[in-house]
Design goal:
7 helices; 40% strand
């Protein structure tokens, strides 16, 4: 190596507050070969290969409750089924509060109320219990009730650790009825079948899937919000909240045509995204997803089919299209695939416009060189195209050549790094991040030398001070000290070159009453949760039992 590269680790915490959640990260490619076209956009970035940290937890969250006299008591709350634990501070003693003592409490972004006279196993129960508030729609209140079978029932009867039941009650009734009863959705929901396309079809799915009932309730909720002109609100981690005072972002339901809904996302008055959905919970993108510059001009559009990106168009700040590429999935021979690997995405460029407005992409075998300047760090990148394929992208830094990972021809050893991450984070504590429900993706840009070892890098964005600090220490101890990320490299005789790539680290919290924040945006599902549990078992970690928890840990 002709020039020693100094280790640079920079946590750009202020970026989360800039550009209205569209976080500038520069012109880079991640380990999946996905281009980061200048920004990290949390609603569309969904890397297939990443370091995951979706953790079971029942740690305390910031919240409050109303006592018998109606006074609001604020502190830290932990939900434990038939009671809640409350404390004013980290060192103070905790109080056990039963449903008979209060009527309502708020924990994180969720509200709970006390109910009685509800059905379970075909019998009506009269005791007071907590239930998670979902919505009030057209004279009905909807909640989710949680029941925790005994250990003996789990062992002998094969019951799950937590049983979820959706209940509804008319305003003039004292009894909570089942939303989904013996394979039929409550008759009061039938009036929406003619108003909301595909809802009747989804109701048949609800016969066997509890989550489908929740999807119906939320879809009807959005229908009413659209009719009333009421926004959908989100906190800074893109968790949906009901209280506008808690909100950082909002989505206005601009249109609903047949089965396609149009959501426009804002922070204050600045428009961030515009999206089309065909279904909710999980959200399924169908059509064009638009992303905007801070001044309101379109920066990028992505066309989706059944939540899968198919083509992308990029625009400059004057509104001129600068790039257009198609996204295809290249399936590999099943015998050659590793079990943890997904099919690769490949890009085919239709047009790339130079400074004089010409499309440089040729259909013949001619190789075309194109130069682009990163708007944030002013680095000049040289692109080499042939027949619509990007063969190479690199920049020069002093006497070194830095290549981007524009395809998946490098065999990144992510599984061993994931194991290190699992072991590392299990021993760390950061209660403040847990109480704030801090979640999201951290992007770590790394330089890999000609021997496949990481020699330098930096963290490109920020989530929360405690998570940032934890990630800082992990990458410094396990990556930037020469971690062998690639087993072999081409051009081994050339010392003065590096490969730059971006490793996504996804942080999320799974509580029994709340899925990780990206669960609905990016189809995080229970199969993935099972896979993570199995991974932890393989790593000789203790697998938590329900309600699953790592007390006081992330």
């Amino acid at each position: 190596m002709k020039k020693k590269i100094t280790l640079t680790l920079l946590l750009l915490s202020f970026l989360c507050k800039m550009l209205y959640a569209q976080i500038p990260v520069g012109l880079k490619y991640d380990i999946n070969g996905i281009p980061l076209n200048g920004y990290l956009d949390p609603l569309i970035y969904n890397p297939k290969e990443k370091i995951t940290g979706i953790y079971y937890s029942d740690a305390y969250e910031k919240g409050y409750y109303f006592d018998a006299d109606g006074r609001k008591i604020t502190g830290l709350i932990r939900f434990k089924g038939d009671k809640i634990f409350f404390k004013d501070g980290k060192t103070e003693s905790r109080d056990k509060i039963k449903p008979q003592e209060i009527k309502q409490f708020v924990i994180g972004v969720d509200s709970f109320i006390t109910i009685s006279n509800f059905y379970r196993y075909g019998q009506i129960k009269f005791e007071r219990t907590y239930a998670q508030y979902i919505a009030a729609l057209d004279g009905y209140t909807f909640v989710k009730h949680y029941f925790f079978p005994s250990g003996m029932a789990q062992q002998n009867a094969g019951q799950p650790p937590v049983i979820e039941t959706y209940l509804m009650k008319a305003d003039d009734s004292e009894t909570w009825e089942l939303v989904n009863n013996n394979g039929r959705v409550h008759k009061s929901m039938e009036k929406y079948w003619s108003l909301i396309p595909n809802l009747e079809k989804k109701s048949k799915t609800a016969q066997s899937q509890t989550e489908a009932a929740f999807s119906i309730i939320k879809t009807v909720s959005y229908y009413n919000k659209h009719r009333a002109g009421t926004p959908v609100y989100y906190d800074e981690y893109w968790q949906e909240v009901s209280d506008p005072a808690q909100a950082t972002y909002r989505a206005e339901i601009r249109d609903r045509h047949d089965s396609i809904w149009t959501f426009d996302y804002y922070r204050d008055q600045a428009k961030l995204f515009s999206a089309h959905y065909s279904s909710f919970y999980p959200h399924v993108k169908e059509g064009t997803f638009s992303l905007y510059y801070p001044d309101g001009k379109i920066r990028e559009t992505v066309l989706y089919e059944k939540d899968q990106p198919k083509e992308t168009r990029l625009f400059d700040e004057l509104g001129r299209q600068t790039c257009h590429y198609l996204i295809t999935e290249k399936q590999r021979d099943i015998k050659k695939r590793k079990t943890e690997d997904a099919d690769q995405e490949s890009l085919r460029f239709v047009s790339v416009v130079n400074t004089v407005g010409e499309n440089i992409i040729k259909t013949n075998s001619e190789r075309i060189v194109h130069t682009v300047v990163d708007p944030f760090d002013k680095s000049a990148y040289t692109y080499l195209f042939q027949n619509g394929t990007l063969l190479q992208c690199y920049r020069l830094q002093d006497k070194d050549t830095v290549f981007q990972t524009v395809n998946r021809d490098l065999d990144f050893k992510i599984a061993p790094l994931q194991k290190k991450f699992d072991s590392y984070i299990l021993e760390k504590e950061y209660d403040e991040a847990l109480s704030d429900n801090a979640q999201g993706i951290l992007l770590v840009s790394v330089w890999i030398d000609h021997k496949g070892a990481v020699r330098s890098g930096k963290i490109l964005n920020s989530i929360h001070p405690e998570i940032d600090s934890l990630a800082n220490e992990f990458v410094k101890e396990n990556l930037f000290s020469g971690y062998k990320l690639v087993p072999s490299m081409k051009n081994k005789k050339r010392d003065a070159f590096f490969v730059e790539t971006v490793i996504p680290f996804e942080f999320g919290i799974n509580r029994f009453y709340r899925k990780p924040v990206r669960y609905y945006n990016n189809n995080f599902n229970f199969l993935m949760m099972d896979q993570m549990t199995n991974r932890m078992m393989m790593n000789n970690f203790k697998v938590p039992v329900a309600p699953p928890r790592f007390p006081g840990r992330f």
